[in-house]
Structures are given as structure tokens and as C-alpha cells.
Please model this.
Amino acid sequence: MTVPSLASSLSDTVTAAAARLGLPDLAPQVRRSEHADFQADGVLAAARLLRRSPRDVAAEVVAALPADGPVAAAGVAGPGFVNLDLTDRALLAQLAGRLAAPRLGVGTPEAGVVTVIDYSQPNIAKEMHVGHLRSTIIGDALVRILEHLGGTVVRRNHIGDWGTQFGMLIQYQVEHPAPQTTDDAATMRRLATLYRQARSEFDADPAFADRARRRVVALQAGDPATVAAWRDIVAESTRYFTDVYDRLGVRLTGADAVGESAYNTALPDVAAELERRAVAVTSDGALCVFFDDVRGPDGDPTPLIVRKRDGGFGYAATDLAALRQRVAELHADRLLYVVDARQALHFRMVFDTARRAGWLPSAVPAVHVAFGTVLGPDGRPFKTRAGDTVRLVDLLTEAVDRAREVVAAKNPGLTGAALHERARQVGIGAVKYADLATGRTRDYTYDPQRMLALTGNTGVYLQYAHARVRSILARAGGADATVDPTAALEPAERALILDLDAFADTLTEVVAGYEPHRLCAYLYRLAQTFTAFYERCPVLRAEQPWRGNRLALCRLTGDTLRIGLGLLGIDAPDQL
Ligand code: ARG
Model:
């Protein structure tokens, strides 16, 4: 059962009043305000169309509001805004309604909508780097939020498991056989070394490069021994990725891994269809798509290369085949690609090509959910001191180790497995929150000390806020958090109810721009509003009916924080 937000109910109230005045097109635009509970901005635009004074129209709207409804006071402000204050009773009824409803009364606006989301996308035989971390964390949060709003989400881990580099890897392995291990960390070290050595031999020895190229041909032709060697390398890497996903606690599974190689058989047809529809043309032996507005620094058009001169297909062809399949066979209503902002041009060209080819109907949005770069302490893209990629596992291990110190200092009684588990929840939560709390297109500096600070906009701060609420509820000994709607409210209680009620609308906003940081900002503000409430309004020492109402506020705050953190992929333990 959906509980409409106070903002949306008020919007309906204002719309109805305007309709009675003969202003059917007034869009109220209700939002929170510093001067009243809410403010409606829409009168300004409506009055402009009518060529009337906005303040006069606003006064008429105020007068037309029903006197016995949820509005306690209304007035005209500024150039023609309508200020709206709600009755205590309306606020308390809303609190009771959210507590009684399943899922806090959050609606399911995504019901019936199929989203195919492409995220994580590591590359076989290469270490996952912080860019893959961002993609994985942001993608996971979007998946959880879309599903919470009733949506159907198809996850696609577009693993880089194909390409000419496999010829060199397999050939090197054949010439220098090395035993596989079952230990994940050792596996990845082995593969990373294999990659480095194969690369340098490829660059140094033309005869090896030739043999590697013949290996690519053998792989593409399906030579059994070569394909088996390729499978082994893919399986080894995939085991390692799964281990990282488990540590991170993200929803990706083996079934979601549909790598670039999965589209191989579709590539010739993709090329043929593009040619047939005259979307792609042969230029210099390569099959290319040109765009009026995409040009290089010399002014020459920069094409999207579908098929290279040597007949090979690359990254673009694979993305086109995947896109076509996601719409035609997976019936996507929306396509999301959580990928580094530096690939913006690639996606613009891929989406444009797909639209021209008729594979991407105008009703289906395709969105590059771009994100910025993770920077190191020196303000440059995050690398180790030796200039290598920072290993994701090392990063996560460090975060959990630091979290263990933070947790142990706060709670010396915690030891053994309980401490270990708490450290994991706090450490992984800190990494995720620091990533999600920054506007996604911005770069941010990876700073393990700051992300584990107990105060400020951090995951740990929110986990503590949640645990504090749980401890208040525990001390109440299960006493009833029943709402008495006839009680009078303190300003701090009103502010908390208003913030709590905005949860559902916040989730809708997150989805509108694919911006998880809006949920982070909301939860941070909620925790602060709760703190202010708790400082001013005693809960356990209060008399009835205030005690029951305040316990109800604690419960809804605790549940909102827990569900909100959960939608970011962050655990909210009852104690820290
Ligand atoms: N594997 C690529 C990389 O590591 C990212 C793939 C992004 N997804 C896609 N459908 N192109 O850069």
C-alpha cells in the first residue's frame, strides 16, 4: 500500500483549489521551505500566463483552500509563493500511516518497467581497478533502488573477455606452462604476471607476435585446444571477481556475467544490417559510422569503427550487438551503462548508431551513467607509488583493518568473530558511502581516514546514528510506539516527521537522474534532524501520549535509515 507523501497530497489540495478558481493548468510545485512546512511555487507561472498579479492569484488560491483539511495556515509570500503549514494531526496521521504500511508506504512507480543495467565490467586477466569499483558500487545501488520501487532489473556484467590480447596470453601460456592455483589472490597475481610477460614478449619479439596473431585466428576459428585454454583463463579470473563481489556484498552473480565474447556470433549480422540500412559505410577498408557533430582536432570526422580493415570486430560492434539484444530479446524499457565518464563519446556514438539503425526506439532511453575518476592523495588518478593499478582487494583489506581499529576503540568489549564482522560492515560501508555520497560525475580523492570519520557525511556516522536509535528502542523494552494523533507537536518533532516523509520522494529523485548521492544527502540530513530532535525532546522520560509518539518517531527513523543504507548496499547493524 502506497502512502502518498505530504508534498504530493498538498500538491493535490492546491490543484483542486486552483481548479475551483478556474485555473486548471496550475502546476503547484510544492517543496519544503524555511519559512513554512511547504511552499507552492507554481502560482507565479500560472499568473504570468493569465497576465495577472501573482500575489492576487496566490491570495485567491489561499482563500480557496478547504478550512477543515490538513492545512493549518496558508499565506502569500514574496512575489507570489504560497506558504503552507500543516496541522499536527495531519503530520501525526502521516507518521502512523507510514509505520503501519509495508515498506514504509513507499510506492512502486517502477512496476512493469524493465531496466537492463550494464555495470562492473572488469577485464579478464587484469586486476580490477578503482574505476571498476565505482561502476560496481554505483550499479549495485541503482539495482537495489529500482527493484525497491517495483522495477524489473536485468544485470549485465559486460566482462572484457575477448580481443586480440587473448592470442598473446594463450600463446605465452602454451610456451611457458605454469600451474594454476586455487588460491584467489595467487591466481590473480599469476594472471597479472602472465599479462605483463606476454605483453613485453609481444612487444620485443616479432616472431612471438606472429605466433600470437595466429593464436587469435585459431581462437576465432574455434580451435578446440585454443578455446579450452581461453576458457581456463576466463574461469580463473571469474573466480577472482566473484571473490571481490562477495567481499563487497554486491548482488552480481555468475549468471549476470555476459561478457563481450557472448556477442561474437551476432557481430557479422550487426555489420550487415548497418550496411543494408546505410547507417555504416566502408571507408579506407573499414566499416564506419560517421556523425555530423563528431570531429577530431583536425576537423576530420571521427567515425565509430564497426569492423576493422583486417575484418576484426572491436568494442563498438560488441556494444551494438549487446544493445540490439537487450532491446529486442530482453525487452528493455530503459538501458543503463555505468561506465567511466571518459567513455562518453563512445556511448554517444553507439546510441546514435543504434537509433539510426532502428534498434533503439525513441521510447527507450539509453543512458550513459557516467562517473568521475578516483584520485590518489596527490590529486592524480589513483595509482600505487610504483605507478601500478591499486589492487582492489588490498584497498578493501585496508579499509576493513582501519575499521577494526575504529570499532574496537569505540567498543572495547567487542572481540573475535563479532569484531571481525562489525569491522567488515563498517569498512566496506565506508568505502561504498564515500563513493556514492559524491555527485557521481565528480572526481573524488580516496582517503581511508576521512571515510572512516565518526562525524560528518560518512557511512560510519550513519551506521552509528542507526545503532543509537536501536538502542533507544531497546531501552524502551518493546514498549508500544503507538501514535496518538491528538497530541501537540514540538517544532523538532515536526521537522523530523517532515524529513521522514520525504524518503519515498527522494528515491524517485534518485531514479530521475540516476544519482545515488541524493539518497546519501537525504540520510545524512535525516540523521542530523534526528539528533536535534533527541536533544530537545526526551523520549524515555516523557509522559504519554508524547512517549508513544516519540518512540514511533524513533522507530520510523531507525527503519528509514536501515532501509536507506540497505539500498546503498550498506549494512546497518543494531549495535556497533
Ligand atoms: N571493460 C571495459 C573497461 O574496463 C568497460 C566496459 C563498459 N561497458 C560496456 N558495455 N562498454 O574499460
Q: What stands out?
A: The pocket of arginine is lined by residues 118, 121, 123, 158, 160, 319, 337, 339 (CB under 6 Å). The chain has 20 helices and 13 strands. The chain has a mean pLDDT of 94.
